[in-house]
Amino acid sequence: MAIIFLNGCTSAGKSSLAKALQEQIDEPYLLLGIDDAFASLPQRSHNNPEGFFFDRDDRGLVRLNFGAFGLATLKAHHRAAAAIAQSGVNLILDEVILTPELRKDWGQVLKGLDVTLVGVHCDLAELERREKERGDRVIGQARGQFDIVHKDMVYDIEVNTSQISPEETASSIIDFLAQNPSRLALSQMAKTED
Ligand SMILES: Nc1ncnc2c1ncn2[C@@H]1O[C@H](COP(=O)(O)OP(=O)(O)OP(=O)(O)O)[C@@H](O)[C@H]1O
């Protein structure tokens, strides 16, 4: 079954876009994302060096980091997503690819599946405006992810949500899907260099 894989920074508009896609595509798609993996953690694994924690790199940028249990959680999430599609259900994935290792893991786990890779971009100023307005996100996270989330990614289609609504963005992806039957980007996901 088909997977529409949305990758972008926090506040890029992935969840809003995913919901618009669910509404606009005739066939039903389930929705799953990295936030579901975070939500399934025990509370003590948040802000924990074994689980997930925020820190600053040498440039002072906020990074979402993880320890052994955090990595195992993300890899389990990747395999759960693949299993959903393999069981015969369409899936939209709402993801933030945090490291080259995780990018490669996605590429390996999804190999052979019908995956459309969508780069969800947004200008930094607008990301930071949204981050502040939401009130429930760690400030600085969007800037910290801006340089790394799309690094070495190859996409089937890229969108920029800075100035267009989730509904219009969803329409452009649906038009792309209708006009482009073959998908090329996934084969690059596991291959690219660190
Ligand atoms: N196209 C858009 N135009 C204007 N605002 C938007 C757009 N898409 C999303 N937003 C707003 O930006 C904020 C973040 O949106 P959303 O939750 O969809 O982002 P996200 O990429 O899923 O973020 P996260 O990864 O942190 O969950 C919300 O307040 C949402 O209403």
From TrEMBL:
Amino acids binding ATP: 8-15
Highest taxon above the source species: Bacteria
Species of origin: Alterisphingorhabdus coralli
InterPro entries attached to this UniProt entry: CPT, P-loop_NTPase
Name of the protein in its database record: AAA family ATPase
Example GO molecular function: ATP binding
Organism ancestry: Bacteria, Pseudomonadati, Pseudomonadota, Alphaproteobacteria, Sphingomonadales
Catalytic residues of the enzyme: 35
Residues annotated as signal peptide: none
